[in-house]
Amino acid sequence: MTTPPGLRERKKQATRAALREAALRLAVEHGPDQVRVEDIAEAAGVSPRTYNNYFASREQAIVAAVTADREERIAAAVAARPAGVRLADAVTDAVVEQCTDTGGHERALLLITTRPALREAYLDTSAGIEPPLTAVIAERLGDAGAHTARVLAASVAAAVRIALEGWLRPAGKEEAAGSTGAGALVLPSGSLPDQLRAALAPLAPAFDAAERRPG
Amino acid sequence: MTTPPGLRERKKQATRAALREAALRLAVEHGPDQVRVEDIAEAAGVSPRTYNNYFASREQAIVAAVTADREERIAAAVAARPAGVRLADAVTDAVVEQCTDTGGHERALLLITTRPALREAYLDTSAGIEPPLTAVIAERLGDAGAHTARVLAASVAAAVRIALEGWLRPAGKEEAAGSTGAGALVLPSGSLPDQLRAALAPLAPAFDAAERRPG
DNA sequence: CAGAATAACTGCGTACACGCAAATTTGCGC
DNA sequence: GCGCAAATTTGCGTGTACGCAGTTATTCTG
């Protein structure tokens, strides 16, 4: 099942990593807006066209450097919990644990999240946790719950996004209150773990119900 | 609160509608890939630059023509339900009701969802239901539940996206089973209402819990 | 180990997205 | 009506995203 990766796959990961790191380094050095994909590609030793085979936008490589392989880490952390604990707790703890660990790039994160485009790209990365989360949740729920697992994983991803938005709201500009109206009155804006737990809490009953039912 | 919209706002909506309809008409006439934003802008009587003031991509205008104002219709449908019914049911019924109504554009939808880029843009529209849904759910849950409302609305949006993906999976190519593995064994692929209800069902416990608790 | 098959890299060309600043249009108080 | 402030439209310029087809590198098969 776990065939040792061949040269091809290793080279691909190396290229991806080189692009990530080059993107972040250049962004920190010259400022996020002064970096073109051409520069990143050159620094990583590939053609600009190849850059776009790995990342669909200029911003993705930069945020990927701080996001790293968060998705797999979350999934692994969930799988590592003993089977006895509540699935909702396992997921919540894993998410908090892995999202808080920025891998020593907190400085870069601050720089990044001030630029709207990068901020948006960073928030979009939360969608990436859905596939691996789906896999581990499905494993816990059994075959009959595969469909449920997908929905729960997507909901978690959405909640993480909301938590991140709330967390770096102070960093960004004050936004238009918009048609939602009431939401603007109180903006708690606690620490990131607090935001994450608060956002995930409403989903706990859904996890409990899924765990209780066979499918 | 409901100030009669001035000339400015009416013109803006008219321009938006003109762009939507022009985009759809040209896409149906010449094929989705043979339409440039320049063509759409010209047909709507505005400059290409103005097109991008209304839509951030070439595909958005086309899909907006079939999506129309689904977001507001869903929110209105939820608000229209009597306060006695379970919130989960109100939301589910409203979503099924409004997502099934394609406004007579089912032919266009079929044409659209065969192109990957348009398919993706169409799926992305489901994210747009979050803000209005947040507002109506927050109204039902009270001020203390504003935060919960946001998470539930985002989860509903994610579930709708999953339902749409499952619905038009037969239309698209067979996709790589990927690391999720188990999910590929059974692909039910029922009707759209079935897909929607199946995707929303796992969230019902979360709605029930939110309704039961004060906040 | 040779040759076929498969996958990745690259250059080119086209269309797109969007920041910016000037020109035009709308709203509003007088 | 008049003129000012705010919002919208527009052209321009730059950088970006990606389909396509050819080349090169890796993997598979006998």
TrEMBL record, chains A, B:
The keyword DNA-binding belongs to this UniProt entry's keyword annotation: yes
Record-annotated DNA-binding residue ranges: 36-55
Cross-referenced Pfam families: TetR_C_14, TetR_N
Ranges for domain HTH tetR-type: 13-73
Signal peptide residue numbers: none
Molecular-function annotations in GO: DNA-binding transcription factor activity; transcription cis-regulatory region binding
Keyword tags: DNA-binding, Transcription, Transcription regulation
Protein name, per record: Regulatory protein TetR
Source species of the chain: Pseudonocardia dioxanivorans (strain ATCC 55486 / DSM 44775 / JCM 13855 / CB1190)
